Amino acid sequence: MKEKNGEHPFGDAGQLILLGLFLVVWAVDSFFLHKSTFLSDYVPLYIRLVILGLVFITATYLFMSGHTVVSHERRPAGLVSTGAFRYVRHPLYLASILFYVGLAVSTASLFSLGLLVGILIFYNYIASYEEKLLEARFGEGYRSYKKRTGKWVPRIGRV
To answer: Backbone phi, then psi, for 82, in 5-degree steps?
Structure first.
Protein backbone atom coordinates (compact mmCIF):
# COMPACT_ATOMS: atom_id res chain seq x y z
CA MET A 1 0.00 0.00 0.00
CA LYS A 2 1.24 3.47 -0.84
CA GLU A 3 1.39 6.27 1.75
CA LYS A 4 -1.05 9.10 1.21
CA ASN A 5 -0.58 12.73 2.15
CA GLY A 6 2.29 11.97 4.51
CA GLU A 7 0.36 9.35 6.47
CA HIS A 8 1.18 5.73 7.21
CA PRO A 9 -0.49 3.48 4.62
CA PHE A 10 -2.29 1.47 7.31
CA GLY A 11 -2.85 4.40 9.69
CA ASP A 12 -6.53 5.01 8.97
CA ALA A 13 -7.50 1.34 8.79
CA GLY A 14 -5.53 0.56 11.95
CA GLN A 15 -7.17 3.39 13.84
CA LEU A 16 -10.65 2.21 12.84
CA ILE A 17 -9.92 -1.40 13.77
CA LEU A 18 -8.47 -0.41 17.15
CA LEU A 19 -11.39 1.93 17.83
CA GLY A 20 -13.89 -0.84 17.15
CA LEU A 21 -11.95 -3.36 19.23
CA PHE A 22 -11.55 -0.91 22.11
CA LEU A 23 -15.24 0.05 22.13
CA VAL A 24 -16.30 -3.60 22.16
CA VAL A 25 -13.90 -4.53 24.99
CA TRP A 26 -14.76 -1.40 26.97
CA ALA A 27 -18.55 -1.76 26.59
CA VAL A 28 -18.66 -5.50 27.26
CA ASP A 29 -16.38 -5.26 30.29
CA SER A 30 -17.88 -2.05 31.68
CA PHE A 31 -21.58 -2.78 31.25
CA PHE A 32 -22.03 -6.54 31.02
CA LEU A 33 -19.24 -8.75 32.36
CA HIS A 34 -17.63 -6.42 34.93
CA LYS A 35 -14.55 -8.67 35.00
CA SER A 36 -11.98 -5.90 35.46
CA THR A 37 -13.98 -2.94 36.80
CA PHE A 38 -13.55 -3.71 40.51
CA LEU A 39 -11.63 -0.45 41.04
CA SER A 40 -14.87 1.44 40.44
CA ASP A 41 -15.87 0.30 43.93
CA TYR A 42 -12.99 2.37 45.36
CA VAL A 43 -12.97 5.44 43.11
CA PRO A 44 -16.22 7.42 43.33
CA LEU A 45 -18.14 7.96 40.12
CA TYR A 46 -18.00 11.76 40.41
CA ILE A 47 -14.19 11.67 40.43
CA ARG A 48 -14.13 9.40 37.38
CA LEU A 49 -16.61 11.68 35.59
CA VAL A 50 -14.59 14.81 36.40
CA ILE A 51 -11.51 13.11 34.94
CA LEU A 52 -13.56 12.08 31.90
CA GLY A 53 -14.78 15.65 31.42
CA LEU A 54 -11.30 17.19 31.71
CA VAL A 55 -9.81 14.61 29.36
CA PHE A 56 -12.61 15.12 26.79
CA ILE A 57 -12.23 18.92 26.95
CA THR A 58 -8.50 18.58 26.30
CA ALA A 59 -9.10 16.05 23.52
CA THR A 60 -11.67 18.34 21.89
CA TYR A 61 -9.22 21.27 21.92
CA LEU A 62 -6.48 19.11 20.42
CA PHE A 63 -8.83 17.74 17.78
CA MET A 64 -10.34 21.08 16.77
CA SER A 65 -7.01 22.91 16.73
CA GLY A 66 -5.11 20.08 15.06
CA HIS A 67 -7.75 19.47 12.43
CA THR A 68 -6.32 22.26 10.24
CA VAL A 69 -3.76 19.89 8.73
CA VAL A 70 -6.32 17.36 7.57
CA SER A 71 -9.01 19.78 6.47
CA HIS A 72 -9.43 19.27 2.75
CA GLU A 73 -10.59 22.86 2.21
CA ARG A 74 -7.58 24.60 3.76
CA ARG A 75 -4.70 22.10 3.93
CA PRO A 76 -1.53 24.11 4.69
CA ALA A 77 1.43 23.77 2.34
CA GLY A 78 4.12 24.40 4.95
CA LEU A 79 5.07 23.20 8.40
CA VAL A 80 2.37 23.91 10.99
CA SER A 81 3.58 24.93 14.45
CA THR A 82 0.63 26.95 15.72
CA GLY A 83 -2.48 26.02 17.69
CA ALA A 84 -2.19 22.59 19.27
CA PHE A 85 0.91 21.92 17.13
CA ARG A 86 2.67 24.53 19.25
CA TYR A 87 2.49 22.11 22.20
CA VAL A 88 2.65 18.59 20.74
CA ARG A 89 3.61 17.21 17.34
CA HIS A 90 0.63 14.85 17.03
CA PRO A 91 -2.44 16.55 18.51
CA LEU A 92 -4.97 14.50 16.54
CA TYR A 93 -3.45 11.22 17.62
CA LEU A 94 -3.14 12.49 21.19
CA ALA A 95 -6.82 13.51 21.13
CA SER A 96 -7.72 9.94 20.13
CA ILE A 97 -5.54 8.48 22.89
CA LEU A 98 -7.14 10.80 25.46
CA PHE A 99 -10.58 9.69 24.27
CA TYR A 100 -9.60 6.09 25.03
CA VAL A 101 -8.13 7.05 28.40
CA GLY A 102 -11.28 8.96 29.35
CA LEU A 103 -13.57 6.04 28.58
CA ALA A 104 -11.35 3.49 30.35
CA VAL A 105 -11.04 5.67 33.47
CA SER A 106 -14.75 6.52 33.55
CA THR A 107 -15.66 2.89 34.16
CA ALA A 108 -12.32 1.78 35.66
CA SER A 109 -12.00 -0.99 33.07
CA LEU A 110 -8.58 -2.55 33.47
CA PHE A 111 -9.08 -4.63 30.30
CA SER A 112 -9.58 -1.39 28.38
CA LEU A 113 -6.49 0.14 29.96
CA GLY A 114 -4.55 -2.99 29.00
CA LEU A 115 -5.72 -2.71 25.40
CA LEU A 116 -4.72 0.95 25.53
CA VAL A 117 -1.07 -0.14 25.81
CA GLY A 118 -1.32 -1.75 22.37
CA ILE A 119 -3.10 1.31 21.03
CA LEU A 120 -0.30 3.55 22.34
CA ILE A 121 2.31 1.37 20.62
CA PHE A 122 0.37 1.60 17.36
CA TYR A 123 -0.02 5.39 17.51
CA ASN A 124 3.65 5.83 18.39
CA TYR A 125 4.61 3.64 15.42
CA ILE A 126 2.53 5.56 12.87
CA ALA A 127 3.59 8.91 14.36
CA SER A 128 7.27 7.95 14.07
CA TYR A 129 6.72 6.83 10.47
CA GLU A 130 5.06 10.13 9.61
CA GLU A 131 7.81 12.12 11.34
CA LYS A 132 10.38 10.55 9.01
CA LEU A 133 8.32 11.73 6.04
CA LEU A 134 8.00 15.21 7.53
CA GLU A 135 11.75 15.38 8.17
CA ALA A 136 12.42 14.41 4.56
CA ARG A 137 9.96 17.03 3.35
CA PHE A 138 10.79 19.97 5.65
CA GLY A 139 14.40 19.19 6.62
CA GLU A 140 16.02 21.36 9.25
CA GLY A 141 12.77 23.25 9.89
CA TYR A 142 11.11 20.06 11.10
CA ARG A 143 14.16 18.95 13.09
CA SER A 144 14.14 22.31 14.87
CA TYR A 145 10.40 21.97 15.53
CA LYS A 146 10.99 18.47 16.99
CA LYS A 147 13.62 19.85 19.38
CA ARG A 148 11.26 22.42 20.88
CA THR A 149 7.97 20.49 20.73
CA GLY A 150 7.11 17.27 22.54
CA LYS A 151 5.87 14.28 20.61
CA TRP A 152 3.10 13.46 23.11
CA VAL A 153 3.73 15.67 26.16
CA PRO A 154 4.32 19.43 25.90
CA ARG A 155 7.84 20.55 26.74
CA ILE A 156 7.27 23.03 29.51
CA GLY A 157 9.35 26.19 29.11
CA ARG A 158 9.98 25.67 25.40
CA VAL A 159 6.59 26.76 24.08
So the answer is: -115, 175
Q: Where exactly are the structural domains of the chain? A: 11-71+79-148
C-beta separation of 16 from 10 below 8 A = no
Q: Name the nearest CA neighbour of 59 among 97, 86, 28.
A: 97
Q: Mark 16-52 as b/e (b = at least 16 C-beta within 10 Å).
A: eebeeebeebbeebbeeeeebbeebeeeeeeebeeeb
Q: What is the pLDDT of residues 112-152, one digit of tens each?
A: 999 999 999 999 999 999 999 999 999 999 999 999 999 99
H helices of 5-139, in order, are: 11-28, 45-66, 91-107, 110-138
User: pTM to 2 decimals?
Assistant: 0.91
Question: By CB neighbour count within 10 A (0-12 exposed, 13-18 middle, 19+ buried), where does 133 fall?
Answer: middle
Q: How many Å apart are CA 22 and CA 117, to the nearest integer?
A: 11
